[in-house]
Amino acid sequence: MSEITYMLTDPLMQRALLAALLVGAAAPVVGTYLVQRRLALLGDGIGHVALTGVALGWLIGSAMGLVPNDVLAVPGAVVTAVIGSVLIEVVRRRGRTSGDLALAIMFYGGIAGGVLIIGIAGGSSGSLMAYLFGSISTVTTTDLVLTVILCALILAVGVGLRAALFSVSHDEEFAISSGLPVWALNMAVAVLAALTVTVAMRVVGLLLVSALMIVPVAIGQLVTHSFRRTMAVGSVIGVLVCVVGLSVTYWYPVSPGALIVVLAIAVYAVVAGLHPLLARRRPAGDPHPDIPDDVEVAPRASARGDCTP
Amino acid sequence: MTTPAIDARGVHVHLGASHVLRGVDLRVEPGEVVALLGANGSGKSTLVRTVVGVLEPSRGEVNLLGHRLGNDVPWQRIGYVPQRISAAAGVPSTASEVVASGLLHGRRLSLPRGWRTLAREALDQVGLADRAGDAIGQLSGGQQQRVLIARALVRRPELLVLDEPVAGVDRPSQEAFAATMTRLVDDGLTVLVVLHELGELADLITRAVVLRHGQVVHDGAPPRPHASHDAAEHEHLHPHTSELPALDARHVGLSDGPLDAGDREARP
Questions:
Q1: Measured between CB atoms, does A285 come within 8 Å of chain B?
Q2: What is the 8-class DSSP label of residue B129?
Q3: Residues whose CB is less than 8 angstroms from the CB of residue B261 and which lie 6 or more positions away in sequence, other chains included
Q4: Is B261 at the interface with chain A, CB within 8 A?
Q5: By C-alpha distance, which of B45, B27, B29 is closest to B37?
Q6: Which H or E element spans position B212?
Q7: Which residues pair with B22 in a beta bridge?
Q8: pLDDT, tens digit, 9 for 90 and up, residues B67-114
């Protein structure tokens, strides 16, 4: 017990835990909309693009002689991720067939651009490791302030506009016929996804960001069939796995990002395994509505009589 | 003279390379119940999708309740029922959540207080009040269609635009739907409905517009079915509401009709 108190009084751990808690709550909220639109891999695409942004920030930082030279990495990632996600949204609207192709090009372009630019900036691809796999233990107060602001924004928009974002994600055509600002709402989802990727970058890393957005939602879907509750369950699971995963790494030196994702997948596996047991407990009523049909079916007894030789 | 509920003039619509609507005029006065008829591919759905603003006409203009299509249209006074739900979405949602999205319109981006009650009342109108909490994906196709009707009714529209609302809906539900529509029309609802055939709604319809090859070929009293329609050699490719569903199932090549199932069950 005293060890937990000790952990909680460590300022480094306090910052990291707060960041993990906020990211854990926010990522599944945005993930719910992505899963709803069948864009579960969008987070990955944006994550790859953000890597180019990290390298670009690094390049500009070292060109300007800033110390440390990666001070612009996170702002670079934010800007590039937003531009990338808006581009993906534009491509998705223009030609529906080329949506996943555009995503694929972003994946590869993002990684290749990142590695190329970091070399020009005088770093090595090793310098990118902290961004690819997370580096929550190095969260500074400035990082924390940025994380708090962005997470508050994501939660405010993601939860506050839930009904409208649900409508546009569920049936875009109906949303248009309701006169909703569909274009703006679609862009809002794209920008939310980009911001989520960049805040989650510090906690789980760009390569694992999408898992934090999607896996808690997958768990939520197993236990409820309401959109609102799926989002709520996802958010709670996100907070739990982030906080527990990070706390464990206080004692065991493993990668927090990887542990958080493995924990989330383990929870998914357990819930999916228990699901049939939970489902069986529900009252097994007749699911068919009791309404008359207009088919005349001969009584069972006479039908059997006809068939027996 | 009153403002027409729908006033489309000289509408041309291109979908990709195909010129789907070729100069369509459609005027619906308040209180009318207009059926839009025509063969598959004649442009019925394209026309209603253009009327509610989903598609943009390449030529011509559409006015809804006296306002040109755009932000000025009072969308809360219009209800639209699309042909069928877009493939089940990735995240489950309850019938009442889907219906509640009909409460949003124009600049109203959040649900009003008491949305659950409103959604339930709308579901009650289509006879699904007891399924409010069920996932939409667990409902049958016909029930999903009724949820979409409830979504359009929840905002209490003056003008209702429906695209084949009774396709794949069983006959008792069609009768219930016709009864609901009769009540709403008596209260002054204006309706534009795409139909394959008049069916249960026949008594309600005041005028029919027939499209053929993207042009209006008839506008007036509901037309009689084609003379050969009831002949013995006529081959039905669509369900006939006046016949037994089991027979319809055979027409469209579904051998697992209810009668067959009964026969098989009875075998030792």
A1: no
A2: G
A3: none
A4: no
A5: B45
A6: strand B207-212
A7: B12
A8: 998 888 899 899 999 987 655 667 889 999 999 999 998 888 888 888
Where does residue B74 rank: exposed (0-12), middle (13-18), buried (19+ CB within 10 A)?
A: middle
The fraction of chain A above a pLDDT of 90, given in percent, is 44
Mean pLDDT, rounded, for B3-16: 90
- Kindly state the tokens that stand for B5: 């509920």
Other Cβ atoms closer than 10 A to B17: 5
The verdict on B168 touching A (C-beta cutoff 8 Å) is no
- Summarised one tens digit per residue, pLDDT across range A269-299 is 999 998 887 665 555 556 666 666 666 676 6
Nearest CB neighbour to A227, from listed B92, B102, B170:
B92
**Chain B neighbours among A 39-78 (CB < 8 Å)?**
40
Which pTM value belongs to this model?
A: 0.83
CB of B106 less than 8 A from some CB of A: yes
* CA gap A256, A44 in Å, rounded: 19
CA B154 – CA B108 distance, rounded (Å): 14
The burial class, CB within 10 Å (0-12 / 13-18 / 19+), for B189 is buried
Chain segment B152-195, per-residue pLDDT in tens: 999 999 999 999 887 777 787 788 888 888 989 998 999 999 98
B9: enclosing H helix or E strand: strand B6-15
- CA pair distance A123, A55, nearest whole angstrom: 9
Q: Would you list the DSSP string of B170-190?
A: -HHHHHHHHHHHHHHHHTT-E
Tell me the C-alpha distance between A135 and A158, whole Å. Answer: 26
Q: What is the DSSP string of B46-81?
A: HHHHHHTTSS--SEEEEEETTEESSTTS-GGGEEEE
Q: Tokens 């089940």 correspond to what residue?
A: B88
Cβ(B259)–Cβ(A297) under 8 Å?
Answer: yes
Q: Which residues have C-beta within 8 Å of that of residue B256, sequence separation ≥ 6?
A: B249
Amino acid B30 reads P
